[in-house]
UniProtKB/TrEMBL annotation:
Residues 118-330 form the Radical SAM core domain. The keyword tRNA-binding does not apply. Keywords: 4Fe-4S, Iron, Iron-sulfur, Isomerase, Metal-binding, Pyridoxal phosphate, S-adenosyl-L-methionine. Belongs to the radical SAM superfamily. KamA family. One of its GO terms (molecular function) is 4 iron, 4 sulfur cluster binding. It catalyses: L-lysine = (3S)-3,6-diaminohexanoate. The gene is ablA. The lineage of its organism: Bacteria, Pseudomonadati, Bacteroidota, Bacteroidia, Marinilabiliales. This is L-lysine 2,3-aminomutase. Its cofactor is pyridoxal 5'-phosphate; [4Fe-4S] cluster.
Length: 427
């Protein structure tokens, strides 16, 4: 069933009923009027004494910010409202689970200069701010997000640009934070201009939750700036169909009309979107607003978000319910970002049942089991005749791909048998 999008009804909220439309649609007004403390929150949500006390405790450790726009999407009656759960702090955030880690993805460890994580061979993550317009309760970077931004001052960014400029393998920059689009238009233009001066930077990606939590930020001026620096991709972060409003649609369409390919990276969250049908509805809505579902992330092991975690099996179940059952373009890749900085590991149902040299047995989404007969005379690709194979920058230098290409072994760093060697490396 095709869902109708509607504008957020802010006039029904006493706190906002007198706000002028031009203010409401102004992102700077939204930022200035973000809900950052309990007394302001109380004006949009009735709070029990207990909630009051819990909030006060939690806010001592973690920041809260909720844009009026996003606050107007929260249900006042339903404490299980997904938007409310993503925005309003609860006491469980103070619980540190035994599996929690402060920097589970080793973003600080894999960082050659502050603010830059260079983990993968050909791309790097550039954190340009610690601030956001809305602080997601499930944020994986909560160890740094919400801090003041002095350390992201120009000097640091320039060091990152220098590193990128002297590292020709980097052909793709992911600009993230915090939320990069919280920066002023001129600062965004500066960052994109500096990156574009580096010849080997082929593509730029911006990760921003603004289309979801503050769609008013996507102005014509911002689109004009981004347009100058193409190819630029924007990945946003919708987690629930309720977030796909008329305002969000306009924001995403504006970017799409500026030639930006839009993608979505959602996080699998307990009690919010851990349901195949919620996810399917959201993927359909995303395609309608010209956003291509890209990733679903397994919730990370960051501190204070254990109450949002599901099993990994839940993600596999969601993909099982999407693949084949709906538009292929509506099916993102489900990934687990490996604790310890291993990067994203895709996980999905098994479609490969068995194989011989001659045949591969596969199953489809309906449960049909089929066999594919492999060619017996396949000679393989001749690297010596291929100009791409002689391009060193394209050849995988790590991992199983390297073993396939060159043979060899990958040995784990710690093996018990290593302690039993005779000292000259022989066992
Ligand atoms: C996610 C991520 C990227 C980009 O990964 P893709 O799979 O290319 O989207 C790059 N660097 C770091 C550190 C990341 O976490
Ligand atoms: S917008 Fe991104 S960085 Fe900011 S709080 Fe949400 S998840 Fe964290």
């Amino acid at each position: 069933m095709k869902r109708q999008y509607s504008n957020v009804d802010y006039k029904s909220i006493p706190l906002f009923k007198d706000v002028k439309e031009e203010d409401w649609n102004n992102w700077k007004w939204q930022m200035r009027n973000a809900i950052r403390d309990v007394p302001s929150l109380e004006k949009v949500l009735p709070l029990s004494d207990e909630e009051h006390e819990h909030l006060a405790k939690t806010l001592k450790k973690f920041k809260m910010a909720i844009t009026p726009y996003y606050a107007a999407l929260m249900s006042k009656e339903d404490v299980n409202c997904p938007v409310r759960k993503m925005a309003v702090p609860i006491l469980q955030e103070l619980h540190i689970d035994e599996s929690d880690l402060s920097d589970p993805l080793h973003e600080d460890v894999d960082s050659p200069v502050p603010g830059l994580t260079h983990r993968y061979p050909d791309r790097a993550l550039l954190l340009v701010t610690h601030e956001c317009s809305m602080y997601c309760r499930h944020c994986t970077r909560r160890r740094i997000v919400g801090e003041t931004d002095e350390d992201m001052a120009r000097g640091h960014l320039e060091k990152a640009f220098e590193y990128i400029a002297k590292t020709p393998e980097i052909r793709d920059i992911v600009i993230s934070g915090g939320d990069p689009l919280i920066l002023s238009d001129s600062r965004i233009d500066y960052i994109l201009t500096e990156l574009r001066k580096i010849d080997h930077v082929e593509i730029i990606r911006i990760g921003s939750r603004m289309p979801v939590v503050l769609p008013q930020r996507i102005t014509d001026d911002l689109c004009d700036i981004i347009k100058k620096h193409h190819p630029v991709y924007v990945n946003t972060h919708f987690n629930h169909p309720k977030e796909i409003t008329e305002e969000a649609r306009l924001a995403c369409e504006k970017l799409a009309n500026a030639g930006v390919q839009m993608g979505n990276q959602s996080v699998l969250l307990k009690g919010i979107n851990d349901c195949s049908n919620i996810m399917k509805a959201m993927m359909h809505d995303l395609l309608r607003i010209r956003v291509k579902p890209y990733y679903i992330y397994q919730c990370d092991l960051s501190e204070g978000i254990s109450h949002f975690r599901t099993t990994i099996s839940k993600g596999i179940e969601i993909i099982e319910n999407l693949r084949g059952h709906t538009t292929g373009m509506a099916v993102p890749t489900f990934v687990v970002d490996a604790p310890g900085g291993g990067g994203k590991i895709p996980v999905m149902p098994d479609y490969l049942i068995s194989q011989t040299e001659k045949r591969v047995v596969l199953r489809n989404y309906e449960g049909m089991i089929t066999s594919y007969t492999q060619p017996s005379d396949y000679q393989g690709h001749k690297a010596s005749d291929c100009t791409f194979c002689s391009d060193e920058s394209l050849v995988a230098k790590d991992g199983v791909a390297k073993l396939l290409n060159e043979g060899g072994t990958i040995i784990p760093q710690s093996l018990r048998r290593e302690s039993r060697t005779n000292g000259n490396g022989k066992h």
